[in-house]
Amino acid sequence: MSKTKKIAVISGDGIGPEVVAEAIKVMKRSEEMFGLSFEFEHGLFGGIAIDEKGTPLPQETLDMCQKADAVLLGAVGGPKWDNNPQATRPETGLLGIRKALNLYANIRPAFIFDCLKEASTLKPEVLEGTDLLVVRELTGGIYFGDKFRRETEQGQEAVDTCVYNVMEIERIARQAFEIARTRSKKVASVDKANVLETSRLWRETVVRVAADYPDVELEHVLVDNCAMQLLRRPSSFDVIVTENMFGDIISDEAAMLTGSIGMLSSASLGDGAFGLYEPVHGSAPDIAGKGIANPIATIMSVALMYRLTFGYHEAADCIDNAVKEVLDAGHRTADIAVDKSKAISTTAMGELILAAMKK
Ligand code: NAD
């Protein structure tokens, strides 16, 4: 039996609790199968925390996450809180938890299950072989720089400042090169070095870090070109590393190659093994409470946690293989079903994946 790992569970709002429940069942099954041991602690986060504690990120939830080995997050938000002031919006909790836990690297794999190619808006032959991973810088750049408005003779002017320092670029570049070593040893660094000073520093720094990884091939791609190439030749990318705002846009574009947001997992990492794992999708208020959400993104986030935080590769493969087997057998939740009348529920999908988990 391996040492007990503490998992902070923050299910959040909408479909968050529904999909997290299935992911926890998968973790419990893998405890039995692989001699793993987890201790789950649950905390309030997002809209539900605003209702019960008056803040999206209560201090006790943050303390619980800081003491944990990894965090499993569902999703936050919903129309009920959309008109709240900034401080009491669920999304403010998301930015707050990333910053407080120093989670500066967001990792999003995007790959195509053969049997789901039809669900994408791109032609199957363009998607063939697509298996990429975006490493996005998460705590710097224009989202965190000074923002203000001022009066000018031409009327109001708004300013957003983009700032990056060498340390911030170096650490995200290292994450990308380390991950590339576990994959096909290719990194595409995405910037706008023909125009932006922050991008020129980004490129210089990435080149310097690359010298420590001579086994990894590095290419530089301008962000506008990257946006095009992702649609034209997605399979030519492996690891893409980029700054915060470019990564926000590029990772959503890459995500949509796969057809459904209900299939995509993500990790947010800092220094060391600790990480926060969550599906890419939001709280889906339109389907919350109906029992029809796709739990696969959250279940595959557990596989990412096993790989990136705990090094439980065998258990991670077991989960990914079980998901593939269930999809290959034709089982679909409504978001990925061609024939919606045959779609199965959240819990039915969870049960099928549990049954398909084999050593
Ligand atoms: P969303 O991802 O919640 O939903 C977009 C569409 O995808 C909806 O039609 C929804 O039904 C569908 N969908 C999403 N996940 C699904 C799943 N697992 N299975 C089946 N269908 C699924 O995005 P949105 O509607 O723009 O946002 C809803 C709320 O979620 C907002 O309050 C937003 O701020 C929040 N949000 C939170 C996060 C997060 O917690 N990290 C991320 C994105 C959006």
Present the secondary structure layout.
Layout: E1 5-12, H1 16-34, E2 38-42, H2 47-53, H3 59-67, E3 70-75, H4 90-100, E4 105-111, H5 124-127, E5 131-137, E6 147-152, E7 155-160, H6 166-181, E8 186-191, H7 197-210, E9 217-222, H8 223-232, E10 239-242, H9 244-257, E11 265-269, E12 275-279, H10 296-310, H11 313-328, H12 346-356
Parallel strand pairs: 1-2, 1-3, 3-12, 5-10, 8-9, 8-10
Antiparallel strand pairs: 4-5, 4-11, 6-7, 11-12
Helix pairs in contact: 1-10, 1-12, 6-7, 8-9, 10-11, 11-12
The chain binds nicotinamide-adenine-dinucleotide.
Subunit structure: Homodimer.
EC number: 1.1.1.85
Organism: Paenibacillus albiflavus
Would you kindly provide a written description of the structure presented here, covering whatever features stand out?
The structure is a single chain. This protein has helices spanning 16-34, 47-53, 59-67, 90-100, 124-127, 166-181, 197-210, 223-232, 244-257, 296-310, 313-328, 346-356, and strands at 5-12, 38-42, 70-75, 105-111, 131-137, 147-152, 155-160, 186-191, 217-222, 239-242, 265-269, 275-279. It has 359 residues and is an alpha/beta fold. It folds into two domains: 1-103 and 264-359, Isopropylmalate Dehydrogenase (3-Layer(aba) Sandwich), CATH 3.40.718.10; 121-257, 3-Layer(aba) Sandwich (Isopropylmalate Dehydrogenase). Helix 1 runs parallel beside helix 12. The chain starts with a strand and ends with a helix. The model has no long low-confidence stretch (mean pLDDT 95). Bound molecules: nicotinamide-adenine-dinucleotide (NAD). Residues 15, 19, 75-78, 91, 94, 261-262, 278, 281-287, 293-294, 297, 335 line the site of nicotinamide-adenine-dinucleotide. Nicotinamide-adenine-dinucleotide binds at residues 15, 19, 75-78, 91, 94, 261-262, 278, 281-287, 293-294, 297, 335. InterPro entries: IsoCit/isopropylmalate_DH_CS, IsoPropMal-DH-like_dom, Isopropylmalate_DH. Substrate binds at residues 98, 108, 136, 224. The record marks 143, 192 as: Important for catalysis.
